[in-house]
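Subject: Sanity check before I submit

Could someone independently write out the structure tokens for this chain? I want to compare against mine line by line before I put it in a report. The sequence has 362 residues.
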Amino acid sequence: MRRAYLKLKTKIVKIDQNNIEKDKLIYAANIIRNGGLVAFPTETVYGLGANALNSESVNSIFKAKGRPSDNPLIVHIADSKSIDHLVLKVLPGVQKLINRFWPGPLTLVFRKSPIIPDEITAGLDTVAIRMPSHPIALALIKESGLPIAAPSANSSGRPSPTLASHVMEDLSGKVDLIIDGGATDVGLESTVLDTTSIPPSILRPGAITIEQLREELEEVELDPALLSRDYINVTPKSPGVKYKHYSPTADLIVVEGEPNNVVSKINELVIDYTNKGIKVGILATEQTKDFYNRLIDNKPVVISMGDRSHPDMIASNLFSCFREMDHQNIQVILAEAVNKTGIGLAVMNRMNKAAGYNIIKA
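---
Independent answer below. Compare away.
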């Protein structure tokens, strides 16, 4: 195969999700079929796609991202019926989840069929599969005629991309094509549910919440590793489990507690860091953003993640806020925690992972 891991000339094409141009789609699908890499928008974040049934193509994903080989990938499909030859069995209860949440931001883990390369699953006997709802993603998968392996289209460990420009920052010269389909919607990676465990367990929280899943399956649990700081020793069954992820260049510190106490604690920390000559950024909410920048002459950079009462807004903005702090050369970011209910659980999962569980109680 032609790929020798030399610097590529990355091409960018803009596609309107409401008016998908067939010639551009065919061009992208041909790259996938020929073993290349295409970054494309999904409703969650931008994905880095390759032919999921070709080991060499899958390996090129790991190479481009600098991704550890024991970190499994998610296989994306465009028709729920195509799952039949990718997995060994779909239980009736799991079929209820497929019927309700696909297409959408839910990844399901199954026992894999022999057709799935070991490179996809990091040698495990399970495979993670989802059917995205973004029109461009679905059209690309259908046009390629293949299942597409697609982790987030960023350098390993960096904040996931929610804009095509984020993909360019990390992967320009490492991928063949970037499809610019505008901003993603959810802003966080999909929920991952392990259907092979009893009861089924959430390996990674996302926009599909545990409360929603329990409406279809009475018993759904959070995987113990999800709540553990000891991620170094975890055998990853899902992307985003073992390693520090989603991280800005700056050191990130999460401050949690009652909002008033959080504001007071962050104000104290700002003074301490600023006195040491460290450039500080604050990730605040709409309710608190004006309580920080009146303290000192050398004011911190304050960015609002969104309205605290709308955690879906915070989820959509989180990774862009991380990258904006990097663009402003911030050295330490102090971030307000949010409530861990609904999608707030996913927000805090990403925030804590990005901070390496550097959490301060206020």
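---
OP: Matches mine. For the report I'm noting this point. The radius of gyration is 20 Å.
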